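Human:
Care to share another protein and its fold?

Assistant:
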Amino acid sequence: MKKILFLTIFSIISLTLFAQTEFENKLSSLKGISEIQKLNTNVYPEKYEMYIEQNVNGTNSDKGKFKQRIIVGFRGYDRPTVIVTEGYSANYALSERFREELSELCNANIIVCEYRYFEKSCPEPLDWQYLTVNNSLDDLHNIRKTFGEIFKGKWLSTGVSKGGSTCTYYRARYPEDVDVSVAYVAPISHAPEDGRHEPFLNKKVGTPAERKAVKDCMTEFMKRKPNLLPMLDTFVVNHKYNFYLPNKNIFDYMVLEYEFSLWQWGTPISTIPSKKENDVVWFNYLIQMVEPSYFSYPSNYLPFFYQVVREFGYYGYDIKNIKKYTDLKSTKDYVNQIMLPQELRDVKFDPTLYKFTEDYLRNNDPKHIFIYGENDPWTASGVADWLNCDNKTNMKVYVQPNGSHLARINNMPSKTKEEIKNKISDWLK
């Protein structure tokens, strides 16, 4: 009797562990999908990590295949589907608490797409010539086509920062793939050192008093450099960081990056230490604001910096405020000098991507929402200053007052938040 009871319980447990749900069976039937793993979640009824086979060279299969990681949250076949055009790794989406604003707003299924050449989505061998934005957009198009076999409702695309840029490039390249796009804090940069961020930081962010406080803080860092640099030397050794430039130059770049970082993340000016505080306090504040690993190698962000110099673009630094205290003659071409190994430094920037995308946005009217933060330096290279939507029915740009890189629908002013929600709701009817 005990043996029969044991076998019965074992059989029930086995069926529970190994039985696939209807949705998992549908996933297994999709072309190119493999290694499906169920994930714990308290947000979606079902959630899975899996891989999809992609061409290394976009629509051309001659250069071989690789596996791209995606995370899928399932809410229902009758629900809309949000495709998250991630710009980097998708590790964060593995968390059982992971939520995404648009998916929550629309009670939608979600597909988080890790960007090629990041984390688990790397071709072998790693041939850099195929790391192009267009190839990444072909990845997204294949995902959309593949999962369109299951999800027949409306489709939305969304992304944050580089993911927001990717969302916008995707809409321009494949305008019929999705019904609605929401791009958060998305730059459309014109060069590895775009040139619009420096005047933005000097004249537009915050109040004149706040801008002065930040500039004074940078000056104070440089005045204390003789005392802070030995601390950095020790910190670097302890953390086993490697740089392509001497520590004394890295220190100066940390101070330059500090200004961008403070405004990007909306750090209160009140966090700046008093000049009466000791050097340890000032050093810890600098490290808190600009971790030196940003400039170190090897870096998980190497694929991004390669894209920066090739076609994605980035920002430059204004050294006037620290010129009296630094031996840097110029910061021109700093991404090549600091972020890239020698073998990747001969790439010439191609403006085709941003010109094509901006031309599309000017001359078309997709259901596309842009969200920016007023004080976020990335807004300087976004669309807010040049994309005129007055005569457009659909496309709209929203700028959160005093907002940062954390600007989202849910932290917009109440009236604006309701306007955006109603617009998306109407589009999905």
Remarks:
- Confidence is low (pLDDT under 50) at residues 10-17.
- Strands lie at 33-38, 46-57, 60-74, 81-85, 109-113, 155-160, 180-184, 368-373, 396-400.
